[in-house]
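Q: My labmate handed me this sequence with no annotations at all. I'd like to see what the chain might look like in three dimensions before we decide whether it's worth expressing. Could you predict it?
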Amino acid sequence: MVSGFSGLPGGVAVSHLSVYDWPAEVDGGVCGGTPHMHLTCSEGYVVTGGQGAVQTLTTSGYEVTPLAAGTVAWFTPGTIHRLVNEDDLRITVLMQNSGLPEAGDAVLTLPPQYLTDPETYASVTVIPADAPEAEQERVARARRDLALEGYRALRDAEGPEALAAFHRAAAALVRPRLAEWRERWERGARAAATATGEQLDRLERGDFSHLADAGVRAEQPSAYGKFGMCGRLDVYKGV
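A: Here is what I predict for the chain of 239 residues:
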């Protein structure tokens, strides 16, 4: 029997993002989200409204990509990125590996002293789920501003050493969670690719029986306005 996969195509996940309009004093009052990096996941933006930009920093240098309704932009693991909100920027985010970027594969560009171990990192990044909304917003803004301090230092650094040091610290931080991430990948993107391979094999033999197992799914967001790294999120539980 052909292995089935009922998730979104390719094992991706989606969320709807309203980018923070909070001005950042540490960056001249520019409004936007928290700079961070994914280590194993690509991420894509489908801009659905408003205007802004995504700032990116890689070993190739610093870039700014304008974002407006209709823009599709994406980037690979290792890209430090920061969303800037110029006018009500709204995005549908496409995330590799069943939403892993929002489920752990993200390291904020904090100053080095906060990247030494998972406990120190968590002490300034975790938003308490049971706290009042005002407190959650305070924590989200504080960690955004702290990450901007580290981000500015990385942008201003001369030579590759500072970025390499951040990569090294980020890899050490996430290492305890790699087994969990691998399991998510195996259930998602790997399972989806395996199912396609098995279906191709069947079709080559003239077996189309998997078509009789077709199905349709639809879901509404499981949470609205969640405080994320880049803005307020509407998230889905089962996709």
